From TrEMBL:
<dbReference type="Pfam" id="PF09142">
    <property type="entry name" value="TruB_C"/>
</dbReference>
<dbReference type="GO" id="GO:0160148">
    <property type="term" value="F:tRNA pseudouridine(55) synthase activity"/>
</dbReference>
<dbReference type="InterPro" id="IPR032819">
    <property type="entry name" value="TruB_C"/>
</dbReference>
<keyword id="KW-0819">tRNA processing</keyword>
<dbReference type="InterPro" id="IPR002501">
    <property type="entry name" value="PsdUridine_synth_N"/>
</dbReference>
<dbReference type="InterPro" id="IPR015947">
    <property type="entry name" value="PUA-like_sf"/>
</dbReference>
<dbReference type="InterPro" id="IPR015225">
    <property type="entry name" value="tRNA_psdUridine_synth_fam2_C"/>
</dbReference>
<feature type="domain" description="tRNA pseudouridine synthase II TruB subfamily 2 C-terminal">
    <location>
        <begin position="238"/>
        <end position="293"/>
    </location>
</feature>
<dbReference type="InterPro" id="IPR014780">
    <property type="entry name" value="tRNA_psdUridine_synth_TruB"/>
</dbReference>
<dbReference type="InterPro" id="IPR036974">
    <property type="entry name" value="PUA_sf"/>
</dbReference>
<keyword id="KW-0413">Isomerase</keyword>
<dbReference type="Pfam" id="PF01509">
    <property type="entry name" value="TruB_N"/>
</dbReference>
<feature type="active site" description="Nucleophile">
    <location>
        <position position="40"/>
    </location>
</feature>
<feature type="domain" description="tRNA pseudouridylate synthase B C-terminal">
    <location>
        <begin position="183"/>
        <end position="224"/>
    </location>
</feature>
<comment type="similarity">
    <text>Belongs to the pseudouridine synthase TruB family. Type 1 subfamily.</text>
</comment>
<comment type="function">
    <text>Responsible for synthesis of pseudouridine from uracil-55 in the psi GC loop of transfer RNAs.</text>
</comment>
<feature type="domain" description="Pseudouridine synthase II N-terminal">
    <location>
        <begin position="25"/>
        <end position="182"/>
    </location>
</feature>
Length: 295
């Protein structure tokens, strides 16, 4: 049995999130490993991996905010909305002004509705959307509410397509809610500017409280494998509630108690001797256990 905790991985380009999980399974010596928030093979950066009991944290961590650094290429659209897909249209982008670019970005900031990329893992009648696209189906996905807290342009560079068409590469940083597709932001920005657009680079630098500065490469983990202990991970990710031995016993036995008033969302409960007991949420002034960790 492996250790209970999180591993913050700096995922390299070219690997799927599933491949990273497979490698962590070998390093941890257990099959009970999962991840929060998939990264496409092209993308790099923070991938939060849970080992043993920490896998129960992952569903709640996946719902938190994320930060990305990305490069958007204006002037070309692709079937996948990123550089891995076939180019479907090309248009001159050299006429796009900084003012027009900033206006387009502003439209995609805040609480918006986003249609996910067709080549995504979203299921339609039990089948992944990307599978349907690969099978030649015409897929239509429903717009979903997301929040883009910030969408900042850092640099704009000239680029040239293979046929000589003038393109623009735009470096951006995006803070957003779970479920946001950065590929779709690139697509929609290009559509708004009349040039088309797709993603050429993507690096996730933060998932909730876990930043790239905490992440370790697979090579580093192979040399020195260690996890972020589950209690510490929970305390960093969620509001903390310290309870007495009697309260801890009642919670472990599934008895609802008066909520501590720490707001919506998961709360990490700790008993005596800093023992991590459970994740709970507040329901009508009482606690409801989301996941237990006392066993």
């Amino acid at each position: 049995m492996g250790p209970d905790g999180l591993v913050i991985v700096d995922k390299p380009a070219g690997l799927t999130s599933h491949t990273v999980v497979s490698r962590i399974r070998k390093l941890a010596g257990t099959r009970r490993v999962g991840h929060a928030g998939t990264l496409d093979p092209m993308a790099t950066g923070v991938l939060v991996v849970g080992v043993e009991k920490a896998t129960r944290l992952l569903g709640h961590l996946a719902l938190t905010t994320k930060t990305y650094q990305a490069t958007i290429r204006l002037g070309q659209s692709t079937v996948t909305d990123d550089a891995e897909g076939e180019v479907t249209a090309t248009a001159e982008a050299c006429g796009v002004t900084r003012e027009a670019l900033e206006a387009g970005v502003a439209k995609l900031t805040g609480d918006i509705l986003q249609v996910p990329s067709k080549v995504s893992a979203i299921k339609i009648d039990g089948k992944r959307s990307y599978r349907r696209v690969l099978d030649g189906e015409d897929v239509e996905l429903t717009a979903r509410p997301i929040t883009v807290s910030s969408f900042d342009v850092h640099a704009v560079r000239e680029a040239v397509a293979e046929d000589g068409t003038a393109l623009l590469d735009v470096d951006v940083t995006v803070d957003c809610s779970s479920g946001t597709y950065i590929r779709a932001l690139a697509r929609d920005l290009g559509a708004d500017l009349g040039t088309g657009g797709h993603l050429t680079a993507l690096r996730r630098t933060r998932v909730g409280p876990y930043g790239i500065e905490q992440a370790r490469t697979l090579e580093e983990l192979a040399d020195d494998f260690a996890v972020l202990p589950i209690g510490r991970a929970a305390a960093e990710a969620f509001p903390r509630w310290d309870v007495s031995a009697e309260q801890a016993k009642r919670l472990i036995n599934g008895v609802r108690q008066k909520a501590p008033g720490l707001g919506a969302g998961p709360i990490a409960v700790f008993g005596p001797e800093d023992r991590f007991i459970a994740l709970v949420e507040e329901r009508r002034g009482e606690t409801k256990i989301l996941a237990g960790f006392a066993s």
